[in-house]
Amino acid sequence: MLTQNTLTQAHKLKLRWFIAFSSLPLLGVVTAFGIVPQPDTISASLQTVVQEITLPQDKEATLPTSALGNTATFWRNVYIQRGDTITELLRRMNVEDAAASDYLRSDPAAASLRQLAVGKAVQAETSADSSLLALRYLDNQGNQIVIEKNLGSFKTSLLPAQLEQRQFMRTGEISTTLFAATDAAGLPEPAANQLAEIFAGDIDFHRDLRKGDKFTVVYEMSYSNGEPVQTGRIQAAEFINQGKAYRVVYFQTAPNRGDYYTPEGKSVRKAFLRSPLEFSRVSSGFSLSRLHPVLGTWRAHKGVDYAAAIGTKIKATADGTVSFVGKQGGYGNVIMINHQGRYTTVYGHLSRFTTSLRRGQHVAQGEIIGYVGMTGMVSGPHLHYEFKINGQQQDPLRVALPDATPIPNAQKASFQEATRGLIARLGLLRNATLAKLD
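RE: above sequence
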């Protein structure tokens, strides 16, 4: 049978081993609890032992912060939110720095930060005491801005954007409107506008669009430091309207000059756009007998009326020379443009003209020339548009429009080589659903 002394010595030995294996050099004092199972037959009294042990210390951990140089810094990334102020932005970046706040709120060099668009990323480097050391972001033009603290003051530097081009693909199907479909497909608005302009000569998006029409687009995006900064040009596109497929590819015929062509090399840019407005609805078509909404009598309506809000931009439908700009009878404010010697377009009921537009001025296709209004003999805001050939009005929605110049014979081989891959990609994507797949 074990004696009381023998039991006490064995308990102490086990307790020392438990302390030895449990002690870590991170704490100055360790309180150890050792539990030794005892046989039921042993009823001897035991004592609880608490022993303070001095552990070796980490010398570096005991040094004051100043001795370590306080070199720890932290990077935080936040995004501009609607209604943000500099104070709120600094709070989210965990910056507590009065000098930085004053500089960012008032210094002209930091104005681009105060003008950042919603969703733009901002990176901040701070010290352990929450002072601001550096701030980096891309401004609204894609330039990299660096704000750094140097000897207690702040300095802003601008680094030109290092742009990288990436290609994206989108497909969509029309259920209501073109814009609704491009939004659903994730196509950026600038690319959606390009899509409408490219096919404007073949498809009247006011009258011809049908539910189930489909489009496929290959376009470029410019990136700077991994962040998208600008929507680039559409490189290839297909639009299936009422079962008929229209395909285009972009090709440069000269440095800094290019256009869209069919896979066969025919220019898709018509000499005239079908409509002078991007998106609207036809409120009154071309007719030889129509009840006039103001006069209440039946008379010919030799043009097309597009219902649109006052101030909607009006585009010249073709290159030409302004022959008249001003007020004229029932037209109200009107612009008349001559094209190629035998064509004339008329734009009536405008609210105003673009600044400095004058008679004899050359205008380019797609150039903004005025804004929708309700001047003259009208019952509501709209644009009255006429298309004349040799002085005779023709239905702008049905008249055959002349084509632009095709690919020159000398460039056909290079055109086919440059666009072969894009044309093949359109064929592969026709039945694919790539919306929002990057």
